[in-house]
Write a structure and sequence with these properties.
It is a single chain. The protein is mainly alpha-helical. The protein has one domain. The chain is built from 9 helices and 4 strands, in the order ββαααααββαααα. The protein has a two-stranded antiparallel ribbon. Belongs to the Lgt family.
């Protein structure tokens, strides 16, 4: 076989700890969540947030995000779960893969809003702190797709083609054994990590706040995901006009990101006065982790019209 990327032994997808079965896919997701939590907490702490506040928020965001991710996947793959003789418990088998990012964004946003209200943190301040952390979490989570032998694209002759066994249920029936495919999980990992660097660079250069950084996250991720889904052959969902649902969702993410960026740019011309909903500013806090010139901030504020800012 020509040079290519081998898929891991299927036995590596899980291991046993006594009576407990541990799935590598679930571990990747959990690791991504922990990484995102630590990064977001550090970014908020640099602006004066209390230690542990992110944990208070993700206690709402993560469960609702997981529920949203799973149900989005199930309802865009109805034929995989609802058919004569189907085991309906498979609907809840998240360890077998099938957790849609866009569903997690929807559910997680609801949970984050609730958590932010209870913790006293501005929702958009939290969203901006989370944006690069989300890309890190998604990059880590995509490793789980590798162990599950999923998320691959069209056949390729490139040296980094991914080997998929012909017995895989998602292996196209009209292709010969030994065909290798574009490793979409790897492409997305690279795209997401590049996005982290770009978002942080733009944040530092333009002092992006008020949800503008999160808006750019939606644009970046949506653009990359729309291309990846366009060359993906393992999904079973065809949406409107035979275009996969995730492509439409990617277009929606890009459009939403552009709209949010325009709205926040027009309505919020200055720096956030505080990440807290009650407006308090802790001593020695900085904006978005970027040191500001106090005199310049004061001069800028004096030239801006008074405005009541909200979430």
């Amino acid at each position: 076989m020509e040079l290519s990327i081998p898929s891991p032994d299927p036995a590596w997808a899980q291991f046993h700890l006594g009576p407990l079965t541990v799935h590598i896919y679930a571990l990747c997701i959990l690791t991504g969540i922990i990484a995102a939590m630590l990064i977001t907490q550090r970014r908020l702490s640099r602006r004066g947030a209390e230690s542990g506040v992110v944990l208070d928020i993700i206690m709402w965001a993560v469960p609702l995000g997981i529920v949203g991710a799973r149900f989005y996947h199930v309802f865009t793959h109805i034929g995989d779960y609802f058919f004569p003789g189907a085991n309906l418990w498979d609907v809840f088998a998240i360890w077998d893969g099938g957790n849609a990012l866009y569903g997690s964004l929807l559910g997680g946003a609801v949970g984050a809003y609730i958590g932010c209200r209870r913790a006293g943190i501005r929702f958009w301040s939290f969203a901006d702190a989370l944006a690069p952390a989300m890309l890190v979490a998604q990059a880590i989570g995509r490793l789980g797709n590798y162990f599950n032998h999923e998320l691959f694209g069209l056949p390729t002759t490139l040296p980094w083609g991914l080997q998929i066994e012909a017995s895989n249920p998602k292996f196209p029936a009209n292709l010969p054994d030994g065909t290798v495919f574009h490793p979409l999980f790897l492409y997305e990992i690279i795209w997401n990590l590049a996005g982290v660097a770009i978002l942080l660079l733009l944040e530092r250069r333009f002092h992006l706040q008020w949800g503008k950084l999160f808006a750019l996250y939606l644009v970046w991720y949506g653009l990359g995901r729309s291309w990846l889904e366009a060359i993906r052959i393992d999904p079973t969902s065809d949406g409107f006009l035979n275009i996969p649902d995730n492509v439409w969702a990617s277009f929606a993410a890009v459009a939403l990101g552009v709209i949010l960026f325009i709205i926040h740019t027009r309505h919020h011309t200055g720096a956030e006065p505080s990440i807290f909903r009650d407006g308090r500013t802790p001593p020695n806090a900085t904006t978005s982790g970027i040191e500001e010139d106090p005199d310049a901030e004061m001069a800028h504020a004096s030239t801006q019209p008074s405005r009541r800012e909200s979430d």
